[in-house]
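Q: Fold this one first, please.
A: Sequence and structure below.
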Amino acid sequence: MTQAEPSRFQNHRRYLRHPLAEGGAAVAFALYVGWPLLRPDRVVIGFDTIAYTGPNTAVSASSWRHLRIPEWNDTIFGGVPHVANPHSGALYPLKFPFLFLDARRALGLITLMHLVLLAVGIVVLVRWRLRLRAPAGLVAAATVLGSGMLMARSVQFEQMVVVAWIPWVLIGIDWVLRSPRATRWSVPFLAAVVAVMVTGAHAQSLYNFGGLVAAWTLGRVLDARTFRRLWLVGAAGVLGVCLAAPELLPVAEFASRAAHSAQTLEAVGQPGYIIGAKRALATVLGDIFSPNQAFVSGGNENMTSIGVAASVFALIGAAVTILWRRAKRWTAVMLTLAGLISFLFALGPRTVVFRAAFRLVPGFDSARVPARWRDITVMCAALLAAYAVDYLRSGRVNRRAVEVSAAIVGFGVLATVSGRFDLPETRTLVAWAVVSVACVGAVVLGDRHWRVAAAALATLLVLVEMGVMVPGNFLRSSSQPVSVASTPGAADRFLQEHPDRMISFTQEKYDQPQYLLDGLRPNANSLIGVRSIDGYDGGLQITKEWSQTMPFLETAPPDDTLLIKAQLRIPLDPSAWARFGVRWALVDRDLLEPSAVVGGWNGPVLTDGPFEIYENPAFQGEAFLYRASRPLSGDQSSGEQLRALGTAASTTALTDPGVPSLECANSCGRTAVNVQRLYPGAMRTDVDVTQPSLLVTDEQWDKGWTATVDGHSAKVLRADGFSAAVALESGHHVVEWRYHTPGLRLGLVLAFLGLLVCVAVGFELPARLNRRYRSRPAAAEPPT
């Protein structure tokens, strides 16, 4: 040990005092926030739990329990790739310990684990990397954990993943930039964190937090003057992408088939998707007296609620750090700019900044909910509030800081009484005023050299205010009876026992999770393994093929943003729905008279409360042999061309241009074929063919489908612009189908190579090999 090392330890020892106590307090606050996730008699249910996260988790777990990679989801949209959906989290490693639990119960425990991960990450970031004094880490953690932003994210798991891992990404970047031995374990650490976060992340949240990562990197580089190490951050990012390649490559391959990506300014400007200008003040500060913070904010998506104390201390922290703390100045500047710009984005198209970014920044117009930009604002505010607490602990608070604090509070009072905002009731305004004055009082205590008392008061204000608002947040209000996670109802059990494809025609009762589950709200059917032609999209799952074919079943023109059931052509035509393998219809008789929806269908074959199940009389099977075909033309969608076939639709398949047409002189009707489903993405059919025919399944076509006919490879064709098909000659044939995700194998190879590089860098193998090479004696030159 050199003489410089003890002095460095002595210099930074004060930053490492009581880290376990502070981390333990942050974890305790996380458990207080997430207690509903642990209660044995309750299960936390949000809309996305039923309609997206839960179903994806159930599909993934079902495959992993059988030691298979979940490549194909056959329960929605007539079958779609699963790993290639970036929001499925099929390869996310932190889900694996919970594979054998019910999906909704598993998600609760996984979410709680991420709350703890987030709490620990913030404390480590503040204490170890920013080197701020206790209890700055606890204040930052409480600000994020108790915020309305996190409460909304807790029932939107894919977005929660990004929030939970982002402190660790910032830790890794700072470690690479400022560590004396940055090329050893800091680079593999950052690469691993990036890879894990990407495999389970929501695309929009990942895109949004990219701005915070860029701001943080620039601020830390400017403070430490370590520009030469930026390439190491880039190298770690590339390694992280390689480690996440098993998901990223399939996503990139599948993205080209997405039906829609870009949004319009009108679509993203809907009131529920932005922070309303009139409600902006109440949205940020929250209301300690409200039983529902979502009501204060105007919706779940725009909940922010970081409280008065955290907001005031964030502004104080930004001001004093930028003005008087030169060593930390640029980080504070970049956090302040990132927080302000993100909040302007969250206000939506009404701001010039948002409209400019919408037109100029690549990928910005793909986001559906601008209000989610406030996630960055909350994270930046938490870190800036930690700066303020560290300043109070420093013992160097001066009168100018008191004046700045008073000016900040005074400006807030003027903004409140200006008439530009919708204000809550009087008692809430009084509470805001009391907390604001107490914040100034904490700074005054610091000016009088009572630094411990000042920091304690600041911490108490944040903890109490955030703790009081927690019972009114979305996580607590979404706690439902455990009966939600119990066995399915009679109608659902019937469909489980008769696994042919179905369509549900039920209501959207967002406030009644039990109804959405029993009514098999699209995607909820995946929770119990029931297959549907409908589905709820998360971005990529509505393909161009599905979008162009469904007009055959829907009203025209169809809207890709709506469910099929919201735009059905009723009554349902039995033969049209049978073409796509739909045998059952689940109808809520309280919504519409069943005869108006399924007139001509058989039933009801079962009644379960308001739900009735009807059987399609035209259903014959899950695949057909067509003896006649026509090529699709390019001037109409496949659905419109199917509709134009009229009565010939029951005997004729449509094929892609360039595929030879089948001509039939006699016995031209289609023949039903039974399909043996081995597992999602694997099928087997035994069929007798009397003349050249086209075997068309009810599974959606994809590049990953392969087929063998009597053990020999066969080309998988696309029929009706949608279905996987194969051409057959006369005779008896055994056709086997397998789905292999395009890009997955190459991604696994890249991930393995990236892992080898990470291990080599971590153990300094290149440096050791170089030293060993240099230490070898030079070879003797041959005599001349």
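Q: Good. Now the second chain.
A: Here it is, same layout.
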Amino acid sequence: MKFTVKWLKQPLDTKTSVDEIVTRLTAIGHEVEEVINRADMYKTFTIAHVKDVVQHPDADRLKVCTVDTGSEELQIVCGAPNAKKGIKVVLARAGDYIPGIDVTLKKTEIRGVESNGMMCSENELCLSDMSDGIIELPEDAPVGGSYMEYAGLDDVLIDVAITPNRGDAASVYGIARDLAASGLGTLNPVPTDPIKGTFKSDVAIEVQSDSGCPHFVGRMIKGVKNGPSPEWLQQLLIAIGLRPISALVDITNFFTHDLGRPLHVYDAKKIGSKLIARKGKAGEILHALNDKEYKIDETMCVIADENKVLGLGGIMGGIESGCSSETTDIVLESAWFDPNIIACTGRTLEIISDARYRFERGVDPAFTKPAIELATKMIVDLCGGEVSDVVEAGTPVIQKNEIKYDPQMMHDYVGMDVSAKDQKSYLEKLGCVITGDKIWTITTPSWRPDLVIKHDIAEEIARLEGLDKIKPAYLPPLDENNPYKPHDILTPLQKAALHAKKALASYGFQETVNYSFISEKEAGLFANKNDALILTNAISAHMNVMRPSVLPSLLQVVSKNCARGFNAGSLFEFGPVFHGTAPNNQPYQLSAIHYGALKPRHWRGSDVSRNSDMTDLKGDAIAVLEDIGFPTSNLRVLEIEDSRAFHPGQSGALALGKDIVARFGAVHPDILDAFDIKARVSAFEIEWPAVCNILGRKNNNNARPPLKLFDLQSVTRDFAFLMNEETEIGDLSKAILNADKKLITDVRVFDIYQGKGMEEGKKSVAVEVTLQPIDKSLTDEDLKKVTTDITSAALKSVGAVIRG
């Protein structure tokens, strides 16, 4: 929200300085983003007269101009199409800074001809976006005079950030009202005397019940002259970055920014006999004032006549019914539109306009009719014309909340001591009506729908008193008598997530943070189409589905990295996935991915720079689970059933009991093709809810078990088992560990053989078993017994026999 101090002081009667205004705005909750003293920007520019223009001898599009500055004549090379003899221009000399192009001028030669300055366009001076020609000043502009003083550019521009709930502050008058309520000056009332019409409007108005436009007010004005707006109005608009177009358009822009009330003007000769606010129809097209075409649908509110769409209600008008210099008869529109429909339409069509910005935040519904009277007066004053009676359809949707409020709440809730008298003064200056004695009944004004509960009232008073006046409160000493003892902010499961991320980072993985939105095509690679959560209001066509897995987000990053020449890396993300609309259908998932070679190419050979495979990611997944205190010793490795993400022959799942806690493996080639990834990619997914449930059953003791050191040296024994080829090796390892849980500490597979000399349907598995004596060294009898226990457990559990 931009405005100048001079503009602000029209509705606000105050003599305070710019610094005081800026400080107060910040204190009452309006964040000042920028303060620009335009005098500093424009003080070096002067007015000059072009005495002569000749063609550049070595460039068809350049001209050599002789410019009278009032004290000397300068030669300037100019490429503007409107550079001609006799005009008055804005001159910048060598050494002047041009803000629009971020250049400090120097004396130079252009195609062999000396140039001693520059004649400026509006775009180059940041006055508008017009860059097709230099500024042509009126004949009475004083040569040699200051352009800043002549154009009234010696004002201060303030840019304020408006929060989404404060639609009332999206206007100069709204800002002035807040400042006045805080005690910085007096607010001047807005006179809204009705203007009596002299004839009945030729254009009727109709509002359909489901249109999203419950109240529409219109008026016809005949015989207007739509020329340039007066200099004062043009300068107001230029100061905030708007380009003056014509008197009628400039007037509507003025009311949008001055009073926060968007209006629209139709050329009466270009429309039918009725203006209709209705829902759009599929297939309708609007050629809008921004010279773009938009496809209308049934969710949008449009303004139409009997034959065609004229505009998007509350967002933008159409070019076919727009006003021009030939316009003589107009229809003035002042309507109120549903903020939700405005916001949805604007996002769908990706239109950003000043009208949309205000309507979706909330425009005062009670000001619809007074606004048309004010606009009518200005149009008649500046453009002339004969005024019709006001035509009205629908009724205003005015929201005035009644709130019970105890003035003592300021101390109890906010911690500020503000007298009841001052509280009442603040609220009444905001437009509230207060009744009652000890407990007040506060009726909020129509322009403040955000004031709903008593806490809103207390916060408003605190804001106007000054948020900078809230005194700091110190916590009591942290001792045994303090009821507010320090405690952990994070829950045990949040700590587990943090530890897991730190663990992956320590393994060389880099964390990514991605959007939870993906395309419908990408989602279909990981879940059934019928299960996809499709957004009705997607921010883009490529982000219209909530992701069913974190992997597509990681694969997007891999695809972009590979396209930029980063062909190897390790990434992870901890974030939500979406399987339904219920809260328990939106769990968190920890996923990691590796693509390309594990290490760069090396002279020692390919074994050093090999690609990662499923066992690497399986090991990383188990290591992460161990780091957060998960009981990995009891994990089983299973085949993945019905997984679209992983290669069916190079993947697996980690399970504890019936709970699948993780999946790992090589990413399916079809998915890599869909993401245009040529590198080999392996990944794992840890299902965080399953992990959390198991950790919770461990009484939230998520720490890793303490390190146990033994005085006696461990012993290793190798075994070679013959077993059925379909038997899981993990089941064999588990059986061996269970043979003697106290003595056997580790089982590692170091060889698997199938082939010549091996019975068909069988495989040989060689394992190394680590035995850790605790209180005495192992004797031959002890080793013989544990060997018997191991072979018996292997035979009994998985049918494995010692290979002999």
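Q: Anything worth noting on the second one?
A: The chain has a mean pLDDT of 90.
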